[in-house]
Every structure is written in structure tokens, then in C-alpha cells.
Amino acid sequence: MCYCSREAGTLYLLLSLGTVLLGVTLYNFKKSPFLDANKREALADYALPVAVLFFSFIGTYFFSGESLHTFKSSGAVTLKPSSLSLLSAGAVFGACGLGFCLSLLFFMDQNISSAMVNNPGNRLKKGSAFHLDLLVVAIINGILSAFGLPWIHGALPHSPLHVRALADVEERVDQGHVFDIIVKVRETRLTTLIAHILIGLSLLMLPTPLDYIPTAVLDGLFLFVAVTSLDDNQMFERLLLFVTEQSAYPPNHYIRRVPQRKMHAYTGMQMLQLGILCGFGFSPMPYLKMVFPVLLLLLLPIRHLVVPRVIERKFLDAIDTYL
């Protein structure tokens, strides 16, 4: 099959963007005046699966004659330890170097996710366990590595979105601006446990019906996660301030305390660092991608040593306090 024709490309865009559009529309339905509060909340909670199922059906049923790219699988699932004895000494030491870079990414991602989850704005009552969580992640990933299985760790934006899904949110109005505030979070590990059990059971759905989901729909799924994670993202909010009239700025306290020029300079430096990270992270060369965790770690000294030379610490403290 040929996946590079104009028809296939157009269909790919329609399915991918359609999944995003339908998902975001249902996700924002809770802000509409239609139906009652419970139905709006249910539509918002199931926005993503509804969008994926709907456009998977559209792609496989109405466009069955087109060249739709889907993930292929053999249907045979085997679980056996990796043959480490086949590796040479050079391969072992090379893997140690790459593994160190990967461990930096795990360390950063896990701790950043934990810090965002335990943000005071989430009003969590149970205490944090940063070191214990990291130990559990290390043990689990060690076992997964022995069998050649994918690793796990706390990730963005999934972890904050999970907290948001378990939270009761109310809208507050301040000086004409509407914003959401978390009132209570149902703190439980049961939802995560059930989710991972369902992920494991999804292996029973190979090759059918998972093979019927086009990759375009899956790409739309990830776009949906990216778009919805922009809610309450401070950098995205500050990015919008570049094209927002100053009188319409939201009444956030860091905007009142930080001069506009300094705030835009800080946002510009963040965008520059993000561009560099994306350049390495999306590089077609696999080994160049492994530099990504090292670059991510280098952002710490840049933030604490370089940025304060451009922007005064009192302004940085005002921005960080809002985080």
C-alpha cells in the first residue's frame, strides 16, 4: 500500500485534526450551558475515548478502500528475559552511558511530576513521598528492563491531568476574569491501579480490534493531550500576553509585580530553551536524542546562574511563587 498519496495525506489530516477537534469540543462542554452539570462533566471526562472511537469508525468503515496506516502486530505475546549474554563488553559499557542519560530523564520527569502533583493549589491532604516514589520507579524499571518491556515513571502532562480528573473544581471570578480553583481531590491509588490493569488487558485486544485504530487517530490523541495540558500552563499564558492588550491582562499577582519587559524577556528565554530541546528531542538520529536528558539537566544551572543575570531575582521569585 502507498501512504504518500495526496488522498492518504488529506485523510490523515482529517482524521487526526478531527479527533483533536471533537475531543477538545467535548472536553470544553463542561463550560457550556447545555444539559445539566453531571452530563456535562461526563462528556468532558469521556471526551478522548469518544473521539478516538468515533474517528476510528469513520476511518475504517467509510474509508476502508483508502490506504490507512495502522499499527501491525503478530498477535503473539511472549514474555521472556532478555539475552544479555549476547552483548559484548563494549555494548555493555555503551549501554551504561546511554542508561545514565536515560536515568537523568527519569529523575527529572519523576520529580517534576511529583512537584506539580503536590502543588499547594491542588489542596492534597496526604503527604508527599518523593524518595520512596523514585525508589519504587527504579525497582519496577529494573524488572521491566530485564524483560525488554517499556519503562514507566511519573510523566507530564498525565500526572497533573490525573489529579485534575479526581478533583472537584469551582469557577471563581476576580475583576471580571474567570478562573478555576480546586476545592477537593479524591486521593486514591485505585484509579491508577485500575488504569494499569486495563492497559495490561489491552494485550488481549491484539490484533483485533486495536489494529482498526488508524495511526492518524492516535496522533490526534496525543495532540489532544498536548492541547488540553495547556490549561493553567503559565508559560503558555505568558506567551499569549505577547499578543494581548495590556489592559486585558489577567489579574495574576506575578503580572502585577513583574514589569512587562522583564516578563516577556523571561518568556523569550524559555521559548529559546524549548526550541533547543525540541531540536534534539525530535532529531531523526537516535543517539542525538539521548543527549536530550543532559540538556534538560543543564537547564537547572542556566535557570539559577544565567537567568538571574538578566532578570532580577525578586521578579523571578514572583513568577516562581505562582508556579
From TrEMBL:
Keyword Cytoplasm appears in the UniProt entry: no
Protein name (Swiss-Prot/TrEMBL): Bicarbonate transporter-like transmembrane domain-containing protein
GO molecular function: solute:inorganic anion antiporter activity; transmembrane transporter activity
Keywords: Membrane, Transmembrane, Transmembrane helix
Biological process according to GO: monoatomic anion transport; monoatomic ion homeostasis; transmembrane transport
Any one annotated GO CC term: plasma membrane
Pfam families: HCO3_cotransp (PF00955)
Domain called Bicarbonate transporter-like transmembrane: residue spans: 9-321
Membrane topology: Multi-pass membrane protein
UniProt cross-references to InterPro entries, sorted A to Z: HCO3_transpt-like_TM_dom, HCO3_transpt_euk
Chief location of this protein within or outside the cell: membrane
Subcellular location, record wording: Membrane
